[in-house]
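User: Write out your own:

AI:
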Amino acid sequence: MSWFEGFERARFSLPGGSVTARIGGHRSKPALLLLHGFPQTHTMWHRVAQQLQESYFVVLPDLRGYGDSHKPPGGADHAAYSKRAMAQDMADLMTVLGQPQFFLCGHDRGGRVAHRLAVDQPNRIRKLALIDIAPTFDMYHGNWGRDPAPGVDPHFQFAKSYYHWFHLIQPAPLPERMIGADARSYLHAKLGGWGAAGLQNYEPEALAEYERCFCRAESIHAACEDYRASAGIDLEHDAESRDKGHKICCETLVLWGERGVVARLFDPLALWQAQCARAVTGSTLPAGHFIPEELPGPTADALRAFFR
């Protein structure tokens, strides 16, 4: 199947700003919203979405700050890039598309947006799937969900493997300038890392799109703002939700790559079960972090089986 065959690309004016998305499948079918992560765009779903468009009305947006969507100033508290604000964009997009309820799946940063959307607006989400993440609050606070392996310092291993979590949150413009000095090399290092087998799983069209979108000063700054928000205002929102006992109310599927950092350091199933009021199921897949592009067929199969 050719590149995004059957999908149309459009820009939507929303209360929080404009969002670019591809839309495909049948409007008469259940709606499925797929959210990408860092340092990517909606392009990461290209092969998965083509396998799902016969069964769903598939919506593939660029998150706020990424791709061709709007990149507002973050503000002193980076609130414009809170997962609550990013989630509201997605809820508004689905409202514009006439979808009061929908299935939701997020990978990486998109999973964190999906988590917040499911907690803040539970009446909108029919079922939730999260790919290769543990809860942000637990990851920052060293809640592993299990006892560390003998002789392993999980704090050191986490900082070593996810150093970008601590680099990108440094005050502007230091990380922006460091990354911007050779953005393409930085991008390739991220796409080829975290258990991924280099760049071999990325089609030339996808890699070119990531380079076009990421290697711009405004995109690099927006990505940093995303992470700054996660280390600040997002943790405040998460702590408030936990204090009030607000949990994910829908059935949830968790998938994670057996070669990734999440599998090595965390028990994601146990951690998500603690944050969900309904059944949580999940398993590993033989991949690194970028599961939808490493294993598009098994990813599509798992989502189809869960969302049907």
